[in-house]
Automatic annotation (TrEMBL):
Xref: Pfam families: HD_5
UniProt name for this protein: HD-GYP domain-containing protein
Top-level taxon in the UniProt lineage: Bacteria
UniProtKB keywords: Membrane, Transmembrane, Transmembrane helix
Keyword Transmembrane among UniProt keywords: yes
Residue ranges of every copy of the HD-GYP domain listed in the record: 230-426
């Protein structure tokens, strides 16, 4: 957490605003008369929200834990069925059950409660302002339109609040974070009007029929869970392959991990970089040498300088790696980064001879990280350079081999990290780039 005091201040501000709005406006808004059917419906909703939150699915965003859950549809249903104030109480109660079971830290419990209360209350407020409350949300076009507006208010309030809070916790832009989580937000938004509007109808007929909502809720849940599992397993497999490739040569052990760490240090010097691009570059750095799986051990571990023919074989690995990644949808955004990580700023690199800003930004970042790690590694044909020698060489090649802006960012990153540890981090000590 990079700015804890600012985070606490923002959470406190949202808490005061939410309590103020709900406390002042809530009692003046519509609420249905209490009946046994509604009491049973409320109990089922609370249980459903708690179970849904316990089954939440992580989004494939690596630096922060962002989850998507079908509980949003149930919170939305609470707002439409019971009105803004009672619906908010029900939604927060269900959310608190999950927080208590998971023993969340107080700050996370408060954030979850504010998020649930604010989005549910605003959705209920919008709905009761435009709908005919004597009818169900699907009885007339007016009511259904009001439900759609309420769903938009729910998703907008929830996404903006979480983006602001998580951006403070993760040190990134709220806008970039919002875009990174957009797929999950879309799943939730589509579920809100489709499922939330059915709940008031079922609650009036027979609250026990509310269990029927489990069936349509399972569809988006399992679809997104399978997508997340596939993404996670693919990423883990490729990272394992990268590590196994590094181990083929004792001089390059854990090379990909160190390059990814160095790339992350550089990227943090570009605060306006879109969040999804940050994540894509880190993913590419972690598996940038994947194409070496097609290179023989003799060439990879030769204890001397390579011949022209052998170097031509090595030069194919960026293309081989990009072709492997091109076949997998989750990795298509990093294909060009992997393909061009050996291009040079002056256009004399490979495989395509790109120059300057024609080279993807991520490739330029990886080029600096990769080369530094290579120079500070022991090789069979030469000892490792010192940190000072490697930095001098990188400075000398700024504007020819490397993007000068990336070199400057690397220097700033190193300067910021060294005082913290009173030395160059151990992660900066190894592995080569051919």
């Amino acid at each position: 957490m990079e700015h804890p005091h600012r985070l606490y201040a923002i959470v406190g501000l949202f808490a005061v605003l939410s309590l103020g709005i709900i406390g002042l406006v809530g009692p003046t808004l519509w609420a249905p008369p209490i009946t046994w059917q509604l009491v049973v419906a409320a109990a089922i909703l609370i249980a459903g929200i708690a179970v849904s939150d316990l089954s939440a699915i992580d989004l494939p965003v690596s630096r922060l834990r962002i989850t998507v859950s079908v509980s949003s549809a149930l919170c939305f249903a609470a707002a439409l069925t019971f009105g803004p104030l009672p619906g908010t109480v029900i939604a927060v109660a269900g959310s608190l059950v999950e927080d208590v079971i998971d023993r969340r830290e107080p700050i996370k419990l408060i954030v979850n409660s504010i998020n649930c209360a604010l989005s549910t209350f605003l959705a209920g407020w919008v709905y009761v302002s435009f709908a005919d409350l004597k009818l169900t949300p699907i009885t007339t076009l007016q009511n259904f339109a009001a439900a759609l507006l309420a769903a938009g208010a729910f998703s907008f309030a929830q996404s903006i609040f979480l983006s602001v809070i998580l951006s403070q916790a993760g040190g990134t832009s709220p806008w970039h974070l919002w875009r990174a989580a957009a797929r999950g937000l879309l799943v939730e938004f589509l579920a809100l009007p489709a499922l939330g509007t059915l709940y008031p109808v079922l609650a009036r007929e027979n609250p026990l029929a509310l269990v029927l909502m489990i069936i349509p809720l399972l569809g988006p849940y399992f679809a997104f869970r399978n997508y997340r599992q596939l993404h996670h397993e693919t990423q883990a497999t490729f990272e394992l392959l990268a590590d196994l490739l590094d181990r083929r040569d004792p001089y390059t052990s854990e090379h990909s991990q160190r390059v990814a760490h160095l790339a992350e240090m550089i990227l943090k010097q570009f605060p306006d970089l879109p969040y999804e691009e940050f994540e894509a570059i880190l993913s590419a750095a972690r598996i940038h040498d994947l194409g070496k799986i097609a290179t023989t051990d003799y060439v990879l571990s030769k204890p001397g300088r390579l011949t022209d023919e052998e170097f031509a074989i090595i030069k194919r690995h960026p293309v081989e790696g990009s072709e492997i990644l091109r076949r997998l949808t989750p990795y298509r955004q990093i294909v060009r980064i992997v393909r061009h990580h050996h291009e040079r700023w002056d256009g004399k690199g490979y495989p395509d001879g790109l120059a300057g800003e024609q080279i993807p930004f991520g490739s330029r970042v990886i080029a600096v990280a990769d080369t530094y790690d290579a120079m500070t590694s022991n090789r069979a044909y030469r000892p490792a350079m010192t940190h000072e020698q490697a930095m001098a060489e990188i400075r000398r090649c700024a504007g020819t081999q490397f993007d000068p802006a990336v070199v400057a960012a690397f220097e700033r990153a190193i300067a910021a990290e060294v005082p913290e540890r009173q030395a160059v981090p151990q992660v900066l000590d190894v592995a080569p780039s051919e």
